[in-house]
Amino acid sequence: MHPNPPLVAHPTLLSTTAPTPPLTPTALGFYLRTRPHGFVAHVSASPQNLCAVRRLTRAELLARGIEEDAVDSAQLVLSELVGNSVRAYGDYVPLVVEVYVTAYGVAVNVHDPDPGALPRRRVTPLDSAEAEDGRGLGMVDLLAPGWHVRRSTIGKQVRCHVPTEPGWN
What we know:
The chain has 169 residues and is of the alpha+beta class. The chain has one domain: 2-Layer Sandwich (Heat Shock Protein 90). 30% of the residues lie in helices and 24% in strands. It has 4 helices and 6 strands. It has helices at residues 11-14, 47-63, 68-89, 136-143; strands at residues 30-35, 38-44, 94-102, 105-112, 148-151, 156-162. A 6-stranded antiparallel β-sheet has the order 1-2-3-4-6-5, with helices on one face. Helix 2 packs antiparallel against helix 3 (68-89) and helix 3 packs antiparallel against helix 4. The longest helix has 22 residues, at 68-89.
C-alpha cells in the first residue's frame, strides 16, 4: 500500500471550471501528489505524460489566479526541461516535476536521475534562421531568469521561477 495514494487532481481543481479535465490515476508511469500551492508529479517521461503534466500545470495555475502569459511561460519552461532530460537519458526516464506558486512567481523544478550531466547553454542565437536546435535553454533564460541546477537526493534538480504579476497571494 502506498503511504500517499495517487490523487485525481489538486483539490482546487475539483471546484474550478477549468477547461482541462482532471487527470486520472490510471495513467501508466504517472503518480501525482499535492504540495502547498501546486503539485508534484512522478512520471516516466513519455509524450502522453508530458501532455498530462502540461495540462495539469495550466489548470492548476489558472485555478490559482496566475495570468495566462505566465501560465504559457511555465508550460514552455516545463516542456524544455523535460525535453532536455529525455534527450540526455532517453524515453521513459524517471522524472519528478514540481510546479507551485510562490511569492516570487511560478516555480518549475525538474529532477532527473543523473547528478553529473548538467544542462549546457549553447551560443545559438534565439533568432537564428539556420539553427535546428540549441535554443531551448536560451528561452528558459528569458522566461525564467536566474534558473539554476543543484544536486538532489534523486540526482539533480533544475530549478526555475517564472515571474508573475505582483499581487499574487
